[in-house]
Each structure stands twice: as C-alpha cells, then as structure tokens.
Amino acid sequence: MTMSGTDAHLLVFPYPAQGHMIPLLDLTHQLAIRGVTITILVTPSNLPLLEPLLSAHPSINTLVLPFPSHPSIPPGVENVKDLPPNSFRAMMLSLAQLHEPLLRWFRSHPSPPVAIISDLFLGWTHCLACELGIRRLVFSPSGAMALSVIYSLWRYLPMRQKQNSREEDGQDEIVSFPNIPGSPKYHWWQLSPVYRSFVETKGDQDSEFIKDGFLADMESWGLVINSFDKLERVYLEHLKREMGHDRVWAVGPLHQFEDDEEIRGSKQRGGSSSVKVEQISSWLDTRDDHEVVYVCFGSQARLPNDIMEKLAFGLEKSGVHFIWVVKEPINGHVDSTVPPGFEDRVARKGLVIRGWAPQVPILSHRAVGAFLTHCGWNSTLEGIVAGVPLLAWPMSADQFSNATLLVEELKVATRVGEGSRVVPDSDELARVLADSISKNLTNRVIRERVAELGRAAMEAIKEGGSSIVELQSMHNKLATLVSPRNTFKFSGNEEN
Ligand code: UDP
C-alpha cells in the first residue's frame, strides 16, 4: 500500500453504535495508511473502542468531548448498544448539542480539518461544515439499497393513511418506492423506526431537526458507502443519479480490506470478546466442515423471551451444532433470557456466548455452514465475504431491505422470520436449521452463489478492484481540499 502523504486534515465523527462505528473506523484506518491527517471525535466512554486503531496509528489524534445529556439517556451511557431498542433518535438529538463545542474547537485549531466525515445520523454536521466553509462527507454504514429507501422516505415523506387512528392500526399498510430500481414495497412496520417516530411526532421541533439532518445528508459534498459494485450496482447507480456521479464512493467491504491482522478479525474489534477466540476456535476445530450454525442478531437486538424460547427449542430439536450469541439484557427492558436448563441439555451440541463474540473469525472458520442473522449490513457483508449461506430474520432498521436484497435478488439467504411479527414455531425453526446444513442440491447451489459473491468482494478490494479505485478517487478529491483560512477564492460549499 503506498503512502501518498497529503495535507488533508479530516475530522472523523462516528455515531456511537457498534454497527456504525466499526466500519467507519475501518475506513479511517484505510485513510490513515494513505497519509491523511486524522482527528476522531468521540465521547469519553467510547474511547476504548478506538484502541486497536490508535495503536496501529499513533499519529491519529482524538478529540474527546463530554457526552451531552438527554432526558432519555441515563447518565454514563454513551453508546446505543447500552440503550433500549429504538434509542437512535435520542442519541441523534443528544449529539447535536456538540455543534457549539465543535465550532469552538475548529475556530481555535491552528490547522483545522478541511473536511468532516460523519455518520448518516449526524446530518447536522453538514450545516456545521457550511458554517466553517469546509466539506462534509456522509458515511453510510447501510448498503446502497437500504440507503436508497432511507433517503426516499425523507425526500418524499410517505404518510400512513390512517394517521389519526390508534398506533397499531395501519401498521400493515404498504409503502411503495417507485423511484428505486425494482420498485420495492414495505409494510409500514418494516420502515425505519426513526422515520416512523418522525411521522408520529410530526411537527415538533426535534422531529423537524431529524428530518433536516437526513435532507442535509443528501446535500453533502460526498457519500461513502460500505458496499461494492458487484453486490449493489443498480442501487449504487441510483444513488449516483440522485446525488451526483462524482460524489458517491462505494468502498466496501471495509472489514476485509485490512491487511493488518491486529485490526481485522481482532479480538477487540467493536468490543472485547466475552469468550476467548482460541477457546471458540478449538471448539470449532473439532467439528466437520459446514456443520455449525452461527446465530447472532447483531450488537443491539435483544429478543423478547417468547422468541428466545422458540429459538432455544428449535436449536435443541434440530440437533445441529451451533454457536448462539446472546446479548446481555438491559436493566428494566426486554428480558432476552436463555431458558433455564437449555445449556445443560445441549452441552454437547452448542456453545452459548453471552455478550460480545468475535464474529468475523467465527464466520471465517471452515466449520460454520450457515448464519442465522438479523441482516444488519455489517453482518450481511461479513457472511458474504466468509461465503456462508444466510438465514434471514430481519428485526428492525434497514434490515428488511437487506433481507430483500439477500433473499430475493442475490438468492444467498433463506427467509426465516420477520421481527416479532412473523415468528416460526420451534418445530419449523428446527426444520429450517437442520435443512440449512444439509448437503442437498439447493444448499450446494446457494453455497456456490455466496462463495462467488465472496470472491467478487475480494476482487473489489484487490489492486485495480472497484472499491480500491473508488477509495483512491475519494482520497484524491480529499487531497485537493484546502483550508478556507488558506485561500481567498473559496466561498461557501460550491463544487470545485
Ligand atoms: N458484532 C460482533 N460480535 C457480536 C455482535 C456483533 O463482532 O457479538 C459485530 C459484527 O461483526 C458487526 C457489527 O458488530 O460488525 C454489527 O453490525 P450489524 O450492522 O451487523 O448490526 P447492528 O449491530 O448494527 O444491528
């Protein structure tokens, strides 16, 4: 990898949720090895998550600002993973209070950043960038299809017909997206909870602020997506048509880019593993190829107890070998309890990991044959890169779009459930789980398809591959930026 050395000083501002931070830190690593000068903004309790990156790049600076309080966020909590479901909005509103401290920091810095790259949930940083006369790039931890749906929602503001009726009415209404390739359609309840809560509280100041943030994303100078051309070409082209061809860069899969084992697959990636990687590897080593089902619903989802029970009994009845990652319950909220006695009964078949699991190394083990996933975008990419067929059970956010892409378009996943609304019983689950690792023709075809996509992902990040080319083009464009303090010609946020 060549170090080009550039004067560009970039402020990286991640949104504090694991699925958002992990890929943006991976991108930051790529920019750092290309010579970009970087400052990362975090609040104090998220600082440990930067550790692997900072030890690989001691030259990266940190800007640690106190976490701004919010009535829905308990003191001491600074990451969405420690909050009850649907706390994204509260976190967005809380972080917006960093506008003034950031402005002061920029104004007092001897050589301040020429651009901000920030998460798509931090749209207000576009306005901050305009105020400072610098550029803002949006980082999307969602894929291009899901992002097309998200942006379409905020641009066209579809409403429920039964607006004034009870909350549960109208949840099954269909919302169509005719402007997106393939004209996808979703039930109201499958749309982003941030959007749905905007509609429910429409007109209040916070809701308008959230909407303005997403509109500001679309006005930003650039958009960087953790995806790659062969995976989502039509949706990437759609976004390029909407936002401008030279403003959208698909640079994924970022987790695989890494040539430095210290960060990729690191035990510390996104959190410290609650069970030693070596212990999991030794357990997997004793299994045959493709005979283990890996079950994980990402960093946030806590399943209600009735689903936990069905899943536990399904795993037990299926007789498959499995690793099941269970997130610790959050005080006073959904219980997410493994049924008593379950672990003793399945001790010879499965491993239950409570807390944080080293997902990337698990998926890449030869013994893993299927991945029961909530279809978070990072998990989706990680499963594909590892060549593991997916069992799709989307829960929330962009996961329903990701499941459509995986099941209906790419045909690398089997649909298992949908949130808490479509929940298979334990017999059905047992059947699907057992089928997923059988060596029948259908599975062989799916496995070959996902392996082919995995190879395409690796091609994208090889010298000359689409994601490397796009990353380089983004870097070149960043390198042309100069601080407004160093030029009299610059005015506002016009293209150059
Ligand atoms: N992850 C992990 N261990 C866990 C849970 C999650 O390493 O126990 C990682 C996973 O590999 C992925 C990220 O956390 O990189 C989760 O992101 P995703 O988009 O899949 O889902 P989210 O957590 O945002 O719902």
Automatic annotation (TrEMBL):
UniProt keyword annotations, A-Z: Glycosyltransferase, Transferase
Give the matching InterPro entries.
Answer: UDP_glucos_trans, UDP_glycos_trans_CS
Q: Name the source's superkingdom.
A: Eukaryota
What would you give as a GO molecular function for this chain, any one?
hexosyltransferase activity
PROSITE patterns given for it?
Answer: UDPGT
One Pfam family hit: UDPGT
State its Enzyme Commission number(s): 2.4.1.-
Secretion signal, residue range per the UniProt entry: none
Q: What class of enzyme is it?
A: transferase
Q: What is this protein called?
A: Glycosyltransferase
Which organism does this record belong to?
Juglans regia
